[in-house]
User: What shape does this take?
Amino acid sequence: MKTEESTLHRVDPIEAFVQRHAGSRSKSTLLVRLDIDVTVDGALALVETKRTYCNESKSPVEALLTFPVPVHATFFGLTAKIGDRVLEAQAHAKKEARYEYEEAIEKGKAAVLHEEILRGVHMISLANLMPGASVEVTTCWAESLRCHGSTGRLRIPMTVGDVYGVSGLPESDDLTHGGAPPPAFLRIRYDARSAKVAASKLALSDDGVLSGSIPANAPIDIEFEDWRAGIVNGKAHDGRTVSLDFQPLRAEGEDLSVALLVDHSGSMSVRCSGVYGDLSSHEVAKRGLKALAKRLRPSDRLSLWEFDHTCNAVGTGFPLAPREFAGQVDRLSGPSGGTEIGGALDEVIRRTEQCDILLITDGMSYALDIQRLARKGRRIFVVLVGEDSLEANIGHLAALTGGDTHFTFGADVSVALEAVLHGLRGGRAGLTQKWSGDAPERVIALRGNAQIEATWSGPAEESGRDRRSAAAAAFATGLVLGAAPEDVAMRLAVSEGLVTHLTSLVLVDHAGERAEELPVTVKVDLPTPRTYLQAPSPATPPLDHSANVPPPSHLAYAPMPLSAPPSREVQHHAMFPYGDSDQDRVLLQIRWLAAKIHWQKDGSALARCDIGCLLAEIEGEILRLAQHDFFADAGVTLSIDPVRVVLACVAKEAAEESRFANRVLLRLLRGVSEDAFREVTEDLPYVLDVPAWRDYGHKT
Assistant: This one.
């Protein structure tokens, strides 16, 4: 039997291991520059971020960047400059956008995809960045300032620390840090008396623009003094005028009944430099609480709780008057343990009477069920402390419950606590909407201690609109999407060009150079937060070995001789119906290989049927399977090498879980019809169980 020459090349297994893990890390030269432009009109901020990518390798690259974003931000535009051409992305249903992106990769075209991975976390995928080429990708988002009296604040997250718990996202989509900070530059145009950036000194130009270099490994916290309340105008996609009216809420309101929950997990030991000196995030929170107690009303009542991977009352856990509450603050324990936010909220809800909850945390936890907690009927407010804090999950929960989220400005937690208490005393009104058919006409929402009223008016006019007017329209549309039926929300998001849980932005370069091979996928890590190494790693609670969880996929199968029946131990762990037939033993081998192959790292070589990139053990199993009569006969029928048939079957097995395996499958079967492949492999039952390989609706 003839075997392709490329499949005979063997590599040292240690070298292959090193190359595999080196290839999965970000290259410091891939993301080479950040340019951020902020324009504040009244209380509406427009943020444009230009990321410059440069491929210094010898192969086409797919760059994957997952990054945190403000929960309430509305993303509405994306452009890419490739050579001298500027391309603009279009919004499509999420599955359709992913399909268009994958089709572009299959055809060797450059493409950009912007998706919402989960609320507060987005991902930009840039495919087929050619060797020696550079591409500028610009994204836009709009958000209202978070207000406290005459002061408005905006945070642009740049990175995040280690997040406690399991995200449930595939490795390619998850938040990671460890990359080198690229050069970053900031420009701010503002409609306020003054503006300042925490921990940065920018120069003020003659035309009133603040600008300068900034660190890319810390959030950009901007404070605007005497922001302008009132109307901001925009233009909707259909030409109607959109007006946004921002009015600060009054500070008066009802007495407080609050359970105050303080995070004392290990990550809260990160150092903060600010108004209280060089202290940990936990100490900063304690100082802020003591200052806050002096400004409470005698009739306010607060109980104090703390949590890491467990939750406990500080003192009795009963509501206290301000003086007694201040005395309890010194009893808060120091940082240790993991961050079980969900369990802590459950405990406080179970052990307290109906009251609001104020959570002080760095938010770095996946350990909470957002939808279930939102149904508990408690308003949850959040103060996020620390430069590496994450708004994604806890900020989404606060929004769903009618609460709000505020950040510290640098290490100044006092103003953030005052702003949250301002919201706790009032602002209980829900969302008010008025529609004309499927078109919104008016919406009133409370956000960031301001009442925002959006109105759509005037005739539909076919007139151009600039980025600032589009930002106002996009933000107004974002206010109504959550309460709209899914089909209406989808239509509005597509028409306004929004990135949401239903829609993504995608562009394809049809005129540029085409890649002949699959791109090497590179995960671009976020920079490690500058405060990260100042704190010890958070202690992790012991694993619960009594839980009935399946073994990891890479441990579930083991290779075995095809001529020997499988052991009963392997039968017990195999995750599919199993018998003693040769067909079942072949299927077991295929599933073991599918779980063992690193599709993201080795996909480009495997698409060429080059298995020399694999560990010797895996390569040997593929070669041995190729000698089996089943694959030899299939190769003759399909007029391709049996090794290619084996790889196609293995890629098919992995395709539902991995988009990278899906790409390999498409390349391996170029020139082979789907019906022909299905017919010759019909004796393997998995072929009938997995969706057609061109269905890109799989999990990743």
Summary: The radius of gyration is 28 Å. The CA atoms of residues 626 and 646 lie 6 Å apart.
